[in-house]
Amino acid sequence: MKEAVIETQGLTKRYGRVVAVDNLNLRVHAGEVYGLLGPNGSGKTTTILMLLGLTEPTRGTVRVLGLDPAREPLEVKRRVGYLPDSVGFYVELTARENLMYTAKLNGIPRAEAQQRIEEVLERMGLAAVADRPVAAFSRGMRQRLGLADVLLKRPQIAILDEPTLGLDPEAAHQFLDLIASLKHEGITVLLSSHLLHQVQAICDRVGLFHQGRLVLEGTVPELAQRVLGGAWRIHLHAEGPNLEPHLAQLPGVVRVQRASNGVYTLEAEHDLRPEAAERVVQAGGRLLELSIEEPSLDEVYTRYFQEVRHEA
Ligand SMILES: Nc1ncnc2c1ncn2[C@@H]1O[C@H](COP(=O)(O)OP(=O)(O)OP(=O)(O)O)[C@@H](O)[C@H]1O
Fold first, then answer.
1. How far apart are CA 46 and CA 231, in angstroms?
2. What is the pTM of this model?
3. What is the DSSP string of 62-74?
4. Same domain for 148 and 277?
5. Between 139-152 and 95-105, two packed helices, what is the crossing angle to 10 degrees?
6. In Å, how far are 15, 19, 74, 177 from 147, measured between CA atoms?
7. Nearest C-alpha to atom 19 of ligand 1 is from which residue?
8. Ligand 1 atom showing the smallest separation from residue 209 Cα
9. How far does Cα 128 stand from its chain's mean position?
């Protein structure tokens, strides 16, 4: 089994009669990017706060890098970087001064801190504005400074709450690239977001929360398989006889539709382009074009909650 750097068992948090997190069993593996998804109020932030030792569980256990955050919050804080949904900087201080302050709080010696600050400013594209007061920073610059602040202590895990909220598309894109680069350094990333295409672009696995429970978990194709059935869509353009019955017989095909222009759409359980191409030729057809659409997290999410509402 893969090494888990975050592990919870039966983790539960109640606020009075509200069960914010309900019996959560979560395992995040070393080096992966894991996305927490779910509607407002489904328990994502409360989970994050318990992982950081910022709020105590009502029941259950949490281990972060083998530590119990409720008992050893400082040790967890030293090794885990946290970017909250709104980062509080001292706006009258410059970016560099804010980072120096963080370094001091984390006990990083001055010379070492100066070197690390230069590194993270450069990496986050903030070197040129390092001596400007943060008050003049855009939302995108503040988020990059937030990530610089997280990286300063060279964390093993980075926990990011809604990291791209309020960023314009270009800034969001740049920020996602920065997050993805953390993975290459072996930093485990746990992030929460409502922006499904972004989550899909960078997360290895996602966990879907609903009313405090983790209701679905896996890679996007795995979730698509469970929620949508035929998760992969293959578009096939061919000439010749009607290929619908031939294609429908292929193992793994859930549905075949034929448009009047000779384009077939196959809903399939996996990528079966080679088998489909072979079958076209066997049936006496001429293959003109073949393409595949990956399952989308957006579709999985929408369908899941449609079904939940329907059942309710
Ligand atoms: N300090 C608190 N006191 C009382 N109830 C709380 C508190 N914090 C959270 N809750 C409740 O717990 C539930 C889960 O909230 P949480 O903030 O964890 O959800 P979330 O998934 O992070 O939502 P969002 O997407 O809006 O950030 C909600 O019903 C919320 O109202």
1. 32
2. 0.86
3. EEETTB-TTT-HH
4. no
5. 30
6. 30, 31, 20, 12
7. 41
8. 21
9. 30
